[in-house]
Amino acid sequence: MAKWVEDIIAALANLNGVAPLANIYQEVRKIRPSPHPESLTAIVRGTIEDHSSDSARYKGKDLFFSVKGLGSGVWGLRSFVTETPEASDIDEGSDNENKVADNQNLHASGNQAPGRTLQKTYRILRDTQLACQIKLLHNHRCQLCDTSIVLVNKKSYSEAHHIKPLGRPHNGPDIANNIIVLCPNHHVMLDYGVIKLDNSKIRINTGHSISEEFIEYHNENIFGVSY
After folding, report:
1. Which of 32, 71, 131, 140 could disulfide-pair with 158, CB 3.0 to 4.6 Å?
2. The model's pTM
3. How far apart are CA 135 and CA 157, in angstroms?
4. Whether the Cβ atoms of residue 202 and residue 180 lie closer than 8 Å to each other
5. Helix, strand or coil for residue 146?
6. CB–CB of 103/149 below 8 Å?
7. Could you give the CA distance from residue 144 to residue 159 in angstroms, rounded to a whole number?
């Protein structure tokens, strides 16, 4: 019979990499042959905590993560958390943290004076670890239109938006209820204040809620602002 940790990994893989404990218990029951011990829930929870550096019980092999800000009941597979892939037109030599980079461009031929190239980055995708986990939690589906983008490598793509932005002058927090998962179109619309947010129209999943505080901040300070 497979080890408990192997069954938990298989269960989470079937659940797209992240799920509440109640769903994990149910999936493990489907995978693991009957009869099931009465202590199954305690065994599963303990095994996850033993294999997660997010737990005080951690014993060495860091396989699972706890989604911060959603209580202690949502767990995922670390191997499923990936960074947002870069688009093909990104210049690997550029510093995307600078809004404007003014770079020297030395011409190859002899006596030509050096030219100057103005390089602008219009939007910055801030993929914090928590943002990556929240995207996985929503299976990379936009919380406003339910769009899911599948890349040529079969991986799903979405973007995480901090409703009260992290950078100056907003200085928003990197917490779960300040993050919304979006398709690129809706991300641009929110970045540039094209649309308002309405909590009743945001798709909610596994207890991940959006704070009214940050929705109000967007509607009052970003929506309708001229850029």
Report:
1. 140
2. 0.74
3. 9
4. yes
5. coil
6. no
7. 12
